[in-house]
Design a protein that fits this description.
Elements lengths: L6 H13 L6 H11 L5 H13 L3 H14 L4 H13 L3 H14 L4 H13 L3 H12 L8 H13 L3 H11 L7 H14 L4 H11 L5 H12 L3 H17 L6 H15 L2 H15 L6 H10 L4 H10 L5 H22 L15
Helix pairs in contact: 1-2, 1-3, 2-3, 3-4, 4-5, 5-6, 6-7, 7-8, 9-10, 9-11, 10-11, 11-12, 12-13, 13-14, 14-15, 14-18, 15-16, 18-19
């Protein structure tokens, strides 16, 4: 006797296979379901995504989940799953897209409003960043407790109660998104716990205080400790950019030392020699002559720091020269984008940087 399965029945069997840890067997039933219903509904794509996910096929899973939410826009947990996947995959633009879709359904989720602010700034959407930050700061529910909160955080850090400090800082961070002490506490607590989320804390601090140099330096040092030298280089380069753009009074020598160290770790000898010479030029900055600088650039014409410094140096002296060196810098970056992962690595990979 021939048994005929309905579309719903086939989906139920596929779901059972996924639940009972035999997801590979679900695909046959899903294929039969699609034969009966060539334009399947969101439930089909949910199950297809779950089956791929159980098999560790995350890219295929996300493709299916994205199709599912396009058919049924009320699945807020699925929007979060997709957003978190793209953030993990270093695609902040797509992570923001799905975070905002989630916020259309759950507009009061403080943690996700904060995440939207972070992601917006990472891709250069400053207006959106400010919109989300101001929305968070408009909630003054805990404003009167700010001093007591800082005292509790300091006490927990002092007593090495890392978990208590981390929980407290993470919980109240969305209410005080621009208070530096919250980030210091979160970083210290996660370092103390050796938490895998320590990197997230560094990225948050870099984003919120993106015009500073210190958090990029500290994040870079952390990456160096982990042997992630190209990513460390990216962070130190951002610190150097900030030092130039905002004329930071921090230790330029430290930044250049760390840049040189990164090049040495990568075995890029020509770049280390360029940094050695640039250090001398910066020490002699008050007496540095344009002709001398340009001669040094000719010697190290592919060094990123020299080209960036030249664009800064001539910005108020000779606009045409400044633009020329900016153009040469852009050309150099395009030539090296594969080698250096310029548009992949770093929390601001998609941001357009202009001195």
């Amino acid at each position: 006797m021939k048994v005929f399965f309905t579309y719903d029945h086939l989906l139920n069997i596929a779901e059972e296979k996924i639940i009972t840890e035999t997801p590979s067997k679900a695909f046959a039933f899903l294929a039969k379901a699609k034969e009966l219903h060539p334009e399947p509904d969101y439930r089909y794509y949910n199950l297809l995504g779950e089956a791929h996910s159980k098999l560790g096929q995350e890219y295929e899973a996300m493709e299916a989940f994205e199709m599912s939410v396009s058919l049924n826009k009320n699945q807020f947990p699925l929007f979060l799953k997709i957003a978190d996947y793209y953030e993990k995959e270093r695609k902040p633009d797509k992570a923001l897209l799905y975070t905002e879709k989630y916020l259309e359904l759950v507009p009061t989720d403080k943690n996700r409003l904060y995440k939207a602010a972070i992601l917006s700034r990472r891709i250069g959407k400053e207006d959106f960043y400010l919109k989300y930050i101001k929305l968070l700061e408009s909630d003054t529910s805990f404003l009167s407790e700010q001093d007591a909160l800082q005292t509790s955080l300091s006490r927990n850090i002092k007593n090495k109660k890392w978990k208590e400090a981390e929980d407290l800082a993470a919980r109240y961070l969305p209410y005080f998104p621009r208070i530096e002490g919250m980030y210091e506490s979160l970083i210290l607590a996660r370092r103390g716990r050796q938490s895998p989320l320590i990197e997230e804390a560094y990225v948050y601090a870099c984003v919120i205080f993106k015009e500073e140099t210190r958090y990029f330096v500290r994040y870079g040092v952390y990456l160096q400790e982990k042997g992630r030298y190209q990513e460390a280089l990216s962070s130190f380069r951002r610190a150097f950019f900030n030092a130039l753009k905002y004329e930071a009074k921090g230790d330029w020598g430290e930044i250049l030392f760390l840049l040189r160290q990164s090049y040495a770790n990568l075995g890029w000898e020509k770049e280390t020699l360029a940094i050695d010479l640039l250090v001398k030029d910066l020490k002699n900055k008050a007496q540095l002559q344009d002709e001398v600088l340009e001669n040094h650039i000719q010697t190290h014409r592919k060094n990123r720091e020299y080209l960036l410094f030249a664009s800064y140096w001539f910005k108020t002296k000779d606009r045409n020269k400044s633009e020329l060196y900016k153009k040469l810098l852009n050309e150099r970056d395009r030539e090296n984008e594969v080698k250096e992962f310029l548009f992949v690595i770093g929390p601001f990979a998609l941001e357009n940087l202009e001195l």
